[in-house]
């Protein structure tokens, strides 16, 4: 079910609603003029087909810009920033932000500033108010499905685990090591402002902690090593290092020995983990948007 974010701007004119039963936004037409944004029009994708929405507002003397979002290259609309005139109730400026780029704004950066966004979500529809101008703009959001990486380390031994990838971020990491292997991991995830804890393995050895300043910071990569280790007589993780969007890194936790690996994808936030676990953590993978 889509999340409806309240329209920002003046609540005057005719209320309109394009709905929320689309998969993506693929093209946006915006016409600007001296008094602000005159109209906006969207093209959506639904069941693999293009759906052309109506014009919201009216066309006068001004200029029209078109913003194309390349869904075929997995580009999607994340948020919109803008300004509106509190006296006239007219939108003055709009700027569109996708997972690939930030588009140049159209209009004037004057008035009250607003943002349309939702954590780890993309925009699939719009609503608002319009008359001779675009008075307000709201949006519908759905969660972006997470993508799982391959498991690093052992891929068949132990028992599989999957924390899921529908969290907003990670607040804290706990890793227990006995000097030979990673024995236990615990992750405190954030989900809609609440902490959800998942832990795996045997809590035997020395525990290390790494705190993330969520929501202003997120884990972007995990580096580590794995090896066939005694006395466990199987492949296990031997070390883990966590890095964040703020350039911080945890110390290398455990013994850095064996084959190296890195879990990372273009600076995306890591929002979940999966892997293999027995008496130790045998293998690990991550979930990202």
TrEMBL record:
SUPFAM superfamilies: Mannose-binding lectins. Keywords: Lectin, Repeat. It comes from the Eukaryota. SMART domains: Jacalin (SM00915). Residues 2-143, 146-289 form the Jacalin-type lectin domain. InterPro entries: Jacalin-like_lectin_dom (IPR001229), Jacalin-like_lectin_dom_plant (IPR033734), Jacalin-like_lectin_dom_sf (IPR036404). The keyword Repeat applies. One of its GO terms (molecular function) is carbohydrate binding. Belongs to the jacalin lectin family. PANTHER family: JACALIN-RELATED LECTIN 11-RELATED, JACALIN-RELATED LECTIN 3. This is (thale cress) hypothetical protein.
């Amino acid at each position: 079910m889509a999340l409806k974010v309240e329209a920002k701007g003046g609540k005057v004119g005719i209320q309109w609603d394009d709905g929320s039963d689309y998969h993506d936004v693929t093209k946006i037409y915006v016409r600007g003029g001296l008094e602000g944004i005159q109209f906006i029009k969207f093209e959506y994708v639904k069941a693999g087909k293009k759906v052309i929405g109506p014009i919201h507002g009216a066309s006068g003397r001004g200029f029209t810009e078109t913003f194309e979002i390349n869904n075929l290259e997995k580009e999607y609309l994340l948020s919109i920033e803008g300004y509106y005139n509190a006296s006239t109730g007219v939108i003055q400026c709009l700027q569109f932000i996708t997972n690939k780029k930030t588009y140049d704004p159209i209009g004037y950066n004057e008035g009250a500033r607003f943002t349309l966004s939702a954590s780890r979500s993309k925009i699939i529809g719009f609503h608002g108010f319009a008359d001779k101008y675009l008075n307000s703009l709201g949006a519908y959001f759905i969660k972006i499905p997470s993508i799982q990486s391959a498991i690093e380390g052992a891929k068949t031994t132990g028992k599989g685990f999957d924390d899921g990838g529908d969290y907003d971020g990670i607040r804290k990491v706990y890793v227990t090591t006995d000097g030979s292997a990673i024995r236990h991991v615990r992750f405190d995830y954030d989900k809609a402002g609440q902490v959800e804890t998942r832990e795996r393995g045997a809590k035997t050895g020395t525990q290390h902690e790494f705190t993330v300043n969520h929501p202003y910071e997120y884990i972007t990569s995990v580096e580590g090593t794995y090896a066939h280790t005694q006395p466990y007589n199987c492949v296990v993780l031997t070390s883990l290092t966590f890095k964040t969007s703020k350039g911080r890194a945890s110390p290398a936790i455990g013994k850095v020995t064996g084959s190296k690996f890195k879990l990372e994808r273009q600076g995306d936030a890591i929002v979940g983990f999966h892997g293999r676990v027995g008496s130790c953590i045998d293998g690990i993978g991550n979930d990202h948007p």
